[in-house]
Amino acid sequence: MHIVVNIIIIIAAYFLGAIPTSVWIGRSFYKIDLRDFGSGNAGATNTFRVLGARAGIVVFAVDILKGFLAVNLIHFTRYYIPHSGDYINIQLLLGIAAMIGHIFPVYVGFRGGKGVATLFGVICAISFYPTLIMGGVFFTTLVITRYVSLSSMISGFSFPFLIIVIFKETTPTLVIFSLIMAVLMLFTHQKNIERLLRKEEKKANLPKLKKKNRQKKEPARPAGGEE
User: Fold this and answer.
1) Do both 24 and 96 map to the same domain?
2) Residue 133 CB contacts under 8 Å (≥ 6 apart), including other chains
3) CB–CB of 201/152 below 8 Å?
4) Is residue 226 part of a domain?
5) Which positions ≥6 away from 95 have C-beta within 8 Å?
6) Is residue 211 situated within a structural domain?
7) C-beta atoms surrounding 1 within 10 Å
8) 163 plus 106 within the same structural domain
C-alpha cells in the first residue's frame, strides 16, 4: 500500500510541476506562444523579457509554488517520520518529479523552462533557511551583474556549500541532491554560458532609483552689484 501511495503522489508531483504557467498565460492573455519569442524558453525570465513584469511576476510566483506544493504532497502519507532520512528521500523524489515536469511538460509538447523557480520552491519546502540565504545570493548577484542566468548559477552553486559547510547536513541524499542541483544548473544554462563568454547575454532591466536634483539656494545678493 505504501508503494502505491508513493507512486501516486510522485506522478501527481510531475503533473503539478508540468503546469506550463508561462505558455498558458501567453496564449490566454497575449495570444502568443512565449516559446516563439526571446530566448525560446518557457520560464519566468523569458516571460519578463517578452510579456513584461506583471506576467513575469505571476509566472515566477506560480512556478515557485508548484515546486513547494509538489514536495508537500508528502503530507498525504502518514507513515513517515518528519525530517527522518526516508521522509527527506520522498520529498526529494517529489521535488525531482516536479522539476522534470516543469522542464518536460506533458501538456505542451514537453518543451518547458529550465526549472530554476520550481527548484527554488522545492528546496524551500525541504530546507528553508539555506534557501533563504540562497535567494539573497541570487538577488545580490542580480543587482551587481544584472545577469539572471549568472545569478541563477551562482546561487545554485551556493546551495551545496550552505548545506554541507554552513548547516552541516548529514542526510546523504540531500547532500547528493545539492551537488546534482549545482551540476544541473550548468547543464540547463549551457546556451547562457556560451552567450556570457561571447558577451552577448542580455542584462535584466532593473528599476533604477531616480535621483532628485536638489539645487542649493544661493544666498541673496545685495542690490547694487557684487559682494
Assistant:
1) yes
2) 158, 162, 166
3) no
4) no
5) 13, 67, 70, 71, 119, 122, 123, 125, 126
6) no
7) 6
8) no
Q: How far apart are CA 113 and CA 138, in angstroms?
A: 18
Whether residues 19 and 96 fall in one domain: yes
User: What is the C-alpha to C-alpha distance for residues 25 and 138, in angstroms, rounded to an integer?
Assistant: 25
Band of pLDDT at residue 208, cut at 50, 70 and 90: low
Closest CA to 79 of 13, 5, 173, 9: 5
Q: Is the distance from CB of 105 to CB of 111 less than 8 angstroms? A: yes
For 13-30, what is each residue's pLDDT tens digit? 999 999 999 999 999 999
* pLDDT tens per residue across span 131-146: 999 999 999 999 999 8
Say whether both 107 and 131 belong to one domain.
no
Higher pLDDT, 19 or 201: 19
Residue 81: Cβ within 10 Å count: 8
Q: How many domains does the chain have?
A: 2
Same domain (yes/no): 82, 142? no
pTM score, two decimals? 0.81
Q: What is the DSSP letter of 125?
A: H
Domain that holds residue 133: 127-205
Q: Show which of 81, 98, 119 is a domain's final residue.
A: 119
> Taking Cα atoms as reference points, which of 148, 143, 69, 72 lies closest to residue 114?
148
Please give the C-alpha separations between residue 8 and each of 17, 76, 108, in angstroms, as whole numbers.
14, 10, 22
If asked whether residues 178 and 115 sit together in one domain, one would say no
Residue 3 maps to a domain = yes
Measure CA 114 to chain center: 9
